[in-house]
Amino acid sequence: MISSCIPVSVGANPTRLLSDERTTLSQVRQVHAYIIKTNLVTHVLSVTKLVKVLSQSSVPYDAISVFAHALSCFHDMRGIEFFVPPTLKACGKSCALEEGKQIMGFILKTHLWNDPFVTNSLVRMCLELGMVELARSVFDKMPTRDLISWNSLLSGYLKAGQIDMAREVFERMPQRDLVSCNTMIDGYGKHGLCELAEEVFMDMGVRDVVTWTSMISAFVLNHQPKKGLCLFREMLSLGVRPDAPAVVSVLSAIADLGFVEEGKWIHGYIFSNKILDNYNFIGSALINMYAKCGQIENAYHVFRSICHRRNVGDWNSMISGLAFHGLAPEAIELFQEMERAKLKPDDITFLGLLSACNHGGLMDEGQFYFETMQIKFKIVPKIQHYGCIVDLLGRSGCLEQALEVIHNMPFEPDVLIWKAILCASMKHNNVVLGHTAALRALELAPQDSSCYVLLSNIYAKMGRWDDVSKVRSMMRKRGVRKIPGCSSILMDGKVHQFLVGKAMNVGYNQSVLSKLEEVVSKLKSEGYEPDLNEVFLDIEECEKESQLILHSEKLALAFGLSSIPEGVPIHIVKNLRICSDCHTFMQLVSKIYNRQIIIRDQNRFHHFNKGCCSCRNYW
Ligand SMILES: [Zn+2]
Ligand SMILES: [Zn+2]
Hints:
With about 625 residues, the chain is mainly α. Among the domains are: about 315-380, no CATH class; about 395-480, Tetratricopeptide repeat domain (Serine Threonine Protein Phosphatase 5, Tetratricopeptide repeat); about 485-615, no CATH class. Helices cover about 65% and strands about 5% of the residues. The protein is built from 31 helices and 6 strands. It has helices at about 25-35, 45-55, 60-75, 80-95, 95-110, 115-130, 130-140, 145-160, 165-170, 180-190, 195-205, 210-220, 225-235, 245-255, 260-270, 280-290, 295-305, 310-325, 330-340, 345-360, 365-375, 385-395, 400-410, 415-425, 430-445, 450-460, 465-475, 510-525, 540-550, 550-565, 580-590; strands spanning about 485-490, 495-500, 570-575, 595-600, 605-610, 610-615. A hairpin with a 4-residue loop joins strand 4 and strand 5. Helix 7 runs antiparallel to helix 8 (about 145-160), helix 14 (about 245-255) runs parallel beside helix 16 (about 280-290) and helix 18 packs antiparallel against helix 19. The longest helix is centred in the last third of the chain and has 17 residues, at about 510-525. The chain binds zinc ion (2 copies). One zinc ion binds near residues 551, 579, 581 and 582. One of its GO terms (cellular component) is cytoplasm. Keywords: Repeat. This is DYW domain-containing protein. It holds the Pfam family E_motif.
């Protein structure tokens, strides 16, 4: 619909120039000036095109100015509905709240209110400006609502973190399409409601790659990496071609599981299928996967060979990977290289660096970088950065200084900080401070079983057995269950899991236990003595010893020794932190049996070789 005031031949339409995606901002501005000079501002096609291009440019506010100018020149309202939606989009993008409200007032007074294309844009603008309530009231009053209106409101609620409202909208929708279901799966996943996400997923008749990716990410985010990996395999078997986000999600699942063979396969798959990644996330995901799977050399190889070296995310993943392996000097060296390359580190870079100093016991360097990030790079530390420093000071025995940091930081200490103090107190035999820290941790996380375990360990250390049983009964009353220690080994594509106290896989039971007995007696003949202080139970010494022997990583090790060919390192993944008795045990086995043992526990990697551990007994 073309305004009749000035007849314009299509050939004279300068906005034709704007159809090319490579149009530069200065070309857009030239067209803009030309349109005003030649009074083409009343030509609907030209104005619509110009507003659209500007609304998507880096200067979206200019679209609003063009709209206002055009409106003052128009003789009637014909064709205006074409450029109102891009103007609303521009308001959202440029946070123009007042202008947005004025255009809304204008819409309400004209025929535009009956145009669903316009009202949908209005809902989206309100959501973009963070006015969720207003978006809802526009939505409720709209004369006609279509699927786009429902989907916009749904994603608006999810973006605003209002999961209950989103759920209400999703359940009330007269019909749903792929977009609605994919949005809801993603939303449920991000809000920890994995089961609900799975329900939506199972109910869907048609799924696309986004559906699969959203469900895989939901599993990964909610600590169910095994399910994420299985779903990825199912997706491949059904012939759905994964895209970059799917691959990044599954790499993260594999990293959590520590299944390096699967990771290598995906690595090859990415290259042979030329999966493109516009955001350079695959490089970081591969580095992270190799680092978490115990292959820091491969991570380094990926970092040096395939990554875009200007991407800070890749450097961050590499620094964190080195930290996880206790390679603090290497992490610091990489950071210095990053500085020489004039790349700007961010808060995640420093989190990696501080955690490297922490795992490496480098107290001076840790404090130096904590100051550097604030003074030189003007990065405000988050609570995680403070956590690293508190942990670093605490482990080094500077408990007073650690408490001072807590006292002076601008946050209330969280459960992780109290747990750091608690572990440090245990290590340095300060039961009084440990007791206070345990109580604080418990107040903050009454459902976290490890807090109860640590508190009862403190009481056990003090010999207060009555209090130990009180903590136990408190746990029972509150329905909190202790997470049992569990270690796994991947062999021939199959996961073998071992739970504390029993060899879980039936059939391995006897052979694993007799191998373990053999190892123990060999170690004892070489001077090994079980560290009974690690058993916080009021039981006889001999019973304590048999408890210790059945720690899950020892069972996994016995299985590894009898099943994995000599010369091949034994990789074990453990869900909790390794205890000091198991640590000594692994060191001795690596020496006496001349085997490399690599254990990933909750916090970091331990590479045992020739009687020593890469953590130098500091973990
Ligand atoms: Zn142990
Ligand atoms: Zn170690």
